[in-house]
Amino acid sequence: MVIHPDLRQAARPASGPGRSPEARLAEACGLSLAIDLNIVAAEVIRLNAVKPATLIGGGAVERLRDLIEAEEISVVIVDGAVTPIQQRNLEKAWNAKVIDRTGLILEIFGERARTREGQLQVELAALSYQRSRLVRSWTHLERQRGGFGFLGGPGESQLEIDRRLIDERMVRIKRDLDDVRRTRGLHRRARQRVPYPVVALVGYTNAGKSTLFNRLTRSDVFAKDLLFATLDPTMRRVKLPSGRDIILSDTVGFISDLPTELVAAFRATLEEVLEADLLLHVRDVSHPESEAQKADVEQVLSGLGIEMATGDDGVLPSTGKGILEVLNKIDLMEPEQRQSLLDQARRDPPLVPISAVTGEGCDALLAEIERQLAANRLVVTYHLGHDQGGAVAWLYKHGEVLERADNDESAELMVRLSPTDIERFERMHGRELKNGMTESGGKHLP
Asked: Which UniProt keywords apply (predicted)?
């Protein structure tokens, strides 16, 4: 059984825009289905106030107990935060296992993580969650000894042992994760030396990021109509229409009310987002809560220090990170809604409507990615001798050659390159400038 406790408006804290209790219940059911639970009943429980002992009122507890017994329900998912004492009381009243939203998401993450890094991050989050619940875990062991309390009773002893074991394990995991981050940093620096621009897919869970990733990279990353189908970051090379190569990164999906333990634990995974040259915010525009999901993703990105404001042409100023909105699943929309969205996208170039399943709009997406990346590139002019064929080939491969003039002794090339490419080329092939200067090897034009 899945229940969503819904506080009345007067007692409810501020939440995402337009997110209805029914939509939250549907999302909780989706999370439950992600770990193959068989949902017998699902219900929104209206609350005037939170009951400290049981979260919901006594009448609701009794009514649900009868339903749980009649349907032989063994697990109850509560879509919200449940304190240890509330969990214990509800399990006693219902004679069933009670799992709150954090526990459910941790269960999904534990089942899906495949890489060593993902497994470490999940275990760290689970231990942090478990540690907060130790206080009530040993209430059946009461303190029995007298004296001044220096030794403590068996309950206290077991509690301290468990806490110490968890703390020691958390220290080891954090040390291992630091090693993983260093390794990822080395890989990132190696990519910067190549270098290819990195484009990262971000978005709400189940927005279709992995399906789009597979479509653009022609690979077979696990993609399914499930929440949190992707946990471990995956990277592949993609060729743009001009022939330029980029690296596309598929990342973990975001979700509303993500447990704080998981935000901290998955920081290393999100480092790929922080280092990306361009972000593709993939949205499920067929979802009724699409705008609310967009706000949740923007809130997470803002928490990572990524500004969301764009310029008039949809490209961020040089001080920010480019973000391109990809409106996915247009194949699931009604014809009128779909046409309205296509008309809006024509008026607003940063919006790219696509269907990752059918491939519609994917060519336009690649062209827009190229335009966004080119907006941050500089035009440089180089003089290269005819014996520098390798340098010329490098410019053709990594940049966009706008003009070329050949004479008997050399070739003059006007090329559009990223600042990183300019730095690398001039380090490897520094040559005379058009005006005869020899300090940097190129003439930077507006």
From this structure: Cytoplasm, GTP-binding, Magnesium, Metal-binding, Nucleotide-binding
